[in-house]
Specification:
Pfam families: YjbQ. By secondary structure, the protein is an alpha+beta fold. The chain contains 2 helices and 4 strands. It has one domain: YjbQ-like (Jelly Rolls, Sandwich).
Length: about 100
Amino acid sequence: MINLYTAQNADPDVRVDMETFLNHVVPEGPKAPWVHTAEGDDDMPAHAKSSMLGCSLDIPITQGRLNLGTWQGIWLCEHRDRASSRRVVVTCHGQLR
């Protein structure tokens, strides 16, 4: 499961803290309470984390440039320990000037 979302991106500690938070809220491993483990101990936690973060992202573009906040970045999050290859689909809506 992967997610794209925007988050504070200036300090790398934020990524570490975000992963710590997600792993605290959605525990992984053989002692976790999940029943669905068809593809391993990280299977159900990946589904839960993905549902928390959503599966799409709207990104504002103004005059051909990303229009994000000063410290904001776009994160691609993989929730599986051993992920397969992934594709990101980009669809643009709007008017050219």
